[in-house]
Amino acid sequence: MTIERNWAGNTLRTVHASLVEFLLDRSRSGKYYLDLSRNRTQIVQHCIKFISTGRPFSDPKVDKVHHLAMQFFLRHCSECEHTPQLRSDVLSFDSDGIHSQKSDEHYN
């Protein structure tokens, strides 16, 4: 495993494919098992929370993270576990506030 440092923080990368195979096989990995569907659900929920924070887009780092959050939200939404909590988060998501905030900042 390697840790890559970048503007968004630290990224943990696996160097060998057998580690990924091990982690995705519940019978072999036991307590270390990674449930991708469940993990993707958590990613989608974190993306929704970040996008909904109303942070100013004038900060280039926030704008990049916002772009990544939107990208990951769309990418993982179709591959996640559709839980009642995720459904609630998606239904309560206020996209109007995001669009108006971004528009306001472009005109100021």
Rg over C-alpha atoms, rounded to the nearest angstrom: 17 Å
Count up the helices. Answer: 6
Number of strands: 2
Mean pLDDT score:
77
**Uncertain spans, ≥5 residues at pLDDT below 50?**
100-108
The biggest beta sheet is recorded as: 2 strands, antiparallel
User: Cα distance, first to last residue?
Assistant: 45 Å
**Large-scale geometry:** flat
Strand content: 5-15%
Coarse structural class: mainly alpha
State the oligomer. Answer: single chain
Helices and strands, in N-to-C order?
Answer: EEHHHHHH
Strand line-up across the major sheet: 1-2
In helices, the fraction of residues equals 55-70%
Main traits of this protein?
108 residues, mainly alpha, 9% strand, flat, disordered C terminus
What does the model show?
There is one protein chain. It is built from six helices and two strands; from the N terminus they run ββαααααα. It is mainly alpha-helical and 108 residues long. It has a two-stranded antiparallel ribbon. A hairpin with a 2-residue loop joins strand 1 and strand 2.
Task: Give the arrangement of secondary structure elements.
Blueprint: E1 2-6, E2 9-13, H1 17-23, H2 26-29, H3 36-51, H4 60-77, H5 84-91, H6 95-107
Antiparallel strand pairs: 1-2
